[in-house]
Structures are given as C-alpha cells and as structure tokens.
Amino acid sequence: MENNVYHLQYAMDTFYFLMCGALVMWMAAGFAMLEAGLVRTKNTAEILTKNVALYAISCIMYLIIGYDIMYGGSMFLNGLVVGDGYVDETLKAFAEQADFTGGSIYSGASDFFFQVVFVATAMSIVSGAVAERMKLWAFLLFAVFMTAFIYPMEGSWTWNGADVFGLYNLGDLGFSDFAGSGIVHMAGASAALAGVLLLGARKGKYGKNGEVKAIPGANLPLATLGTFILWMGWFGFNGGSVLKLGDIANANAVAMVFLNTNAAAAGGAVAALIVARILYGKADLTMLLNGALAGLVAITAEPSTPTPLLATLFGAAGGVLVVFSILTLDKMRIDDPVGAISVHGVVGFLGLMLVPLTNGDVSFSGQLIGAATIFGWVFGTSLVVWLVIKMIMGIRVSEEEEYEGVDLAECGLEAYPEFTNK
Amino acid sequence: MKLVTAIVKPFKLDDVREALSDIGIHGMTVTEVKGFGRQKGHTELYRGAEYVVDFLPKVKIEIAVASEVLDQVIEAIRSAAHTGKIGDGKIFVSAVEQTIRIRTSESGKEAL
Predict the structure, then answer these.
(1) If you measure CA to CA, which chain B residue comes closest to A404?
(2) Residue A207: exposed, middle, or buried by beta-carbon count in 10 A (0-12, 13-18, 19+)?
(3) Which DSSP state fits B12?
(4) Which residues of A touch B55 (CB under 8 A)?
C-alpha cells in the first residue's frame, strides 16, 4: 500500500514540475507578443523571429552543455535514460525518508524540462532591449553563449550552491532567490544592458537637447495579450519553484505562492497606473503593462513567506519603481524599447532586497553580495561577448536598414503586408 | 493660391514640417502612400517564393499656400527632404481655385 502512495507522490511531483514547465514555456509566447506589440510594424517580423529562435537555441545549448555546467547533469543528458532498476531505487529512497514530507523526488527529465524554460526566459529579456536596431544573427550568436555558459555559471553558484570560483559560497552568506528575481530576471537585464550600451539608441529617439522622442508601439492589443500571457505563465515560474507538491505543507506553499504571485502583479499594475496618472494625467497602458510585470518580478525572489497583503505592497513597490526607472533610463539616453532593463533589472534587484523582510534565514548582506556577483559576472562576460561579436560581424544594422525596417533587411518579409498586387 | 504636393521619404517628415514651421507655414495634410520613380524596389521572399515589390513607402504632404510664398515653400521642402540618394521624392505645384475655412466661412487668401 505504501509503495502505491510513493508511486503516486512521485507521479504527482513529476506531473507538477512538467505542467509548471509548460506554463513557463508559454511565457515565451508572452514575451513574443509583448515585444511585437511595442515595436514598429517595420520591425515586427524580426523580433518575432528572434523570440522563437532564441527559445529554440536556449533549449539546445542548455541541453548540450548548460545543464551540465549548472547542475552537473551529464553531458548530452545520458543520465536521463532510466533503466529497470530505477523504480526500486526510488522506492528505496522514499522508504528511507520514512514519510511523505521529505525532499521531492521526480523524474530527472522533468527537472531538465523545468530548468530549460527558465534559461529561455532569461535570454528572452535581452531581445526586447536591443529591438529595432540589432543584427538578428549577432543576437542569436550571443544567445548561444548566454545560454550555454553565462547563465549556467551564475545558476550554479546560486541554485546549485557551488562556490563562486572557489572563493565564497552565496548560500552560506545568507543569499536566497526563490524563483529568480536576480538569477533569471536581473541576469537577463544585465546582459541586455551590456548590449544596449554597445549598441546605442535608435535613430531619432533622443534629440540634440536631451529631448526624448516617443516611438509608439504598433500593436497595443498584442502587447496587452503578451502581458496577460506572462502573468499566467508566472504561476508556473513561481509555483514550480516550490519544487514539490505531494504533501500538505508543500501543497499549502504552492497555493500561497500562486496567490502571492497574483497579488503582487495586481499591486504592481495599479501602482504603475496611478503613478502614470499622477505624472502625466493619463492612464498610460504601456506603463500599466510594465507595472504588472514589475510586480511579478518583485515577488519572484520570495513568493511564499509574505502575507498576501504584503505581497501586494511589494508588487506595488515594483510598479512605482519601474515607472521612474523607465523615465530615468531615457534621461540617461539608454534606449530600451520595451522597458526590459527597468522591469527585470532594476525591479529584479528590488525583489532580491525585499526577501529578508519576510524570510529570517536570508540577510541583506547576502542578497547584496549575491546581486553584485550575478550582475558583475553576467554584465562583465556579456560585455566581452558583445564586444567580440561587434568586432567580428558588427551588432548594429546600417542606417539605411534601420530606416527601412529590419523586417526587410533581416527577414525579407513584412509582418503587416499591405499593397500586394494579388 | 497654390497647392503644393510633396512626396518625400517617411523619415524626412519631421524635418520638412520643422522647415515649413520656420517660414510660417503651420497647416498641412499628410498621407501615407506607396510609390516609386527611379528608385528600385525590393525583392522579397515569402516561404521560398520570390516576389518584387516596386512600391516603396512614402509620405505625401499637401499644403495650400499663397502664391507669394511659393518659392520659399518649395525651397524649404526641397532642402529639408533632401538626402542625395535616389528616392528623395518630388514636389508638384497646382493651382487652387477656391479655399474656404469651414468654421468661419472665410474664403480666399484669409482662409489659407
């Protein structure tokens, strides 16, 4: 009888991991729609191509080497092929736990699947920031390095608890990042920042006297759809990071995480809407969308310990911060067409620093050291990779191509073709 | 009174508008159009099939002006829209028979 319960628990935890992984995969659609909605028509097909391609590249590179670097999973994942003796070993491991409340046990393949979709999320953050002026293939080349090496390295120091180049251990120093405000979001934004600094702003974005010119997105319905898709996918992102479902305590934790994730998004959305109304007298939809996402990023480092009301407030803090961050980056002439660096980087850092407020095992100093480590590593190595790519093939399209639109230059087709002869 | 119709490259619209504003012309009508003169089109590829698109995006600006300022207007548009590359566009001038302001029923030059 007990064996049957163990089988069920294993199956449940595996199923949960897989479904959460599928939800996070769905976030790729969210990013694609959000970015497609916020760029101009002449650049839409290219950004969609980037989004689909980077997802595929992330999956392949993480499979080939990234997972091995991050978790020591075997090269080419040979270890995922399970033999007949596997079931007996697993049942034995459960029996040693003696009850159902130990660490989760699930299929290694489901672990890989859950991890790989996070890599794709981190990489996807970069595509929005460099939109409308970066060479497609330069970006995809960078994606290869980011997903094979840069992200897995900092992932190994954080979620895998390895020493940072043998010098110090972030877990021992009191660092914790539940679902990746820092490890995924701030890391993606760091790589994006390095790229944007080397790339430069879009032509016509900043005037000679420091004026910021609006370059409106072409399809706000798509941007909104993308935001809601991301919101829903985030339930998998944070929910799955509980890593286990099969006992009462964990089921409660999962429910709390879903609830808090939703609350934070709501808080972020409302806060950003109000700030935009106060600053500009108008309800800026794009700020509202960024606000909801900021709320989600803010709670991602610790969605299980805050009360729901506190989670809402944390989200609201993210929503307020993101609006000011977007304005500040523009004042600094750092052109980020979708606000990725603000939503994921600035608020990702906020998310990390909020953790000690509700989790006593985590220290502010630990979070700071962790944030500095992640940012330093990702920004530094990304800068090097971008520079090398820039020297080999250039990272920016020509002025002519930028005016015509990268859809024609890179993809040879239009996202919204009009005026065809047929 | 003359109607000045200018076909220019889309990214030149702001420059032309500023240049006209500098000489005191504040009203205009703008349409997005596609067209070609000597500028070659693009060959696009859709799922393996090539097709030629001759029509390139342009912007058509129409301004009704008094005959006295016509030369200034033409020169302002021409220099603002100029890039030196093929596809810069053209300016056409036609005569306007009547102009009426809808709000006040003024007509003639006062309505410009």
Answers:
(1) B57
(2) exposed
(3) G
(4) 419
Q: Is A379 helix (H, G, I), strand (E, B) or coil?
A: helix
Q: Would you mind telling me the total number of residues written for chain B in this entry?
A: 112
Calculate the alpha carbon distances from A122 to A148, A361, A387 in Å.
Answer: 12, 26, 20
pLDDT at B86: 86
Query: Using a CB-CB distance cutoff of 8 angstroms, which residues of chain B are in contact with residue A412?
Result: 44-45
pLDDT averaged per 10 residues in sequence order, chain A, 422 residues: 81 93 97 96 96 96 91 64 67 72 79 94 96 97 97 95 91 93 97 97 88 90 98 97 90 96 98 95 94 97 96 97 95 95 97 95 94 97 98 95 91 79 52
Q: Name the DSSP class of A202.
A: P
CB-based contacts of A282: which residues, under 8 Å, 6+ apart? A276
Residue A168: φ, ψ to 5°:
-155, 165
Q: Mean pLDDT score of chain B, rounded to an integer?
A: 90
Structure tokens belonging to residue A308: 């729901």
Whose structure tokens read 């007949």?
Answer: A84
Considering only alpha carbons, which residue of chain B is nearest residue A399? Answer: B11
Q: Using an 8 Å Cβ cutoff, are A194 and A382 in contact?
A: yes
* Closest residue, chain A, to B35 (C-alpha): A419
Task: State both tokens at A215.
Answer: 């370059």
SS3 percent helix, strand, coil of chain A, rounded to 5, is: 75, 0, 25
| Interchain pair B44, A413: CB under 8 A | yes
Please state, in angstroms and rounded to a whole number, the distance separating the CA atoms of residues A246 and A15: 10
- The single-letter DSSP state of residue A99 is S
Residue A228 CA from chain centroid, whole number: 15
Rounded to 5 degrees, what are φ and ψ at A302? -160, 85
Considering only CB atoms, which chain B residues are within 8 Å of A403?
A: 9-11
Provide the pLDDT for residue A79. 54
Residue B105, pLDDT > 90, answer yes
Helix ranges (DSSP H) in A200-307: 220-239, 248-280, 285-299
Nearest one of A301, A299, A293 to A322, comparing CA atoms:
A293
The model carries a pTM of 0.89
Cβ–Cβ below 8 Å for A412 and B45:
yes
With beta carbons under 8 A apart, name residues in chain A contacting B44.
408, 412-414
**B75 alpha carbon, distance to own chain's centre:** 13
Pairwise CA distance, residues A342 & A326, whole Å: 6
Q: Which residues of A touch B (CB under 8 A)?
A: 203-204, 403, 408, 412-414, 418-420
SS3 of residue B38 by DSSP? coil
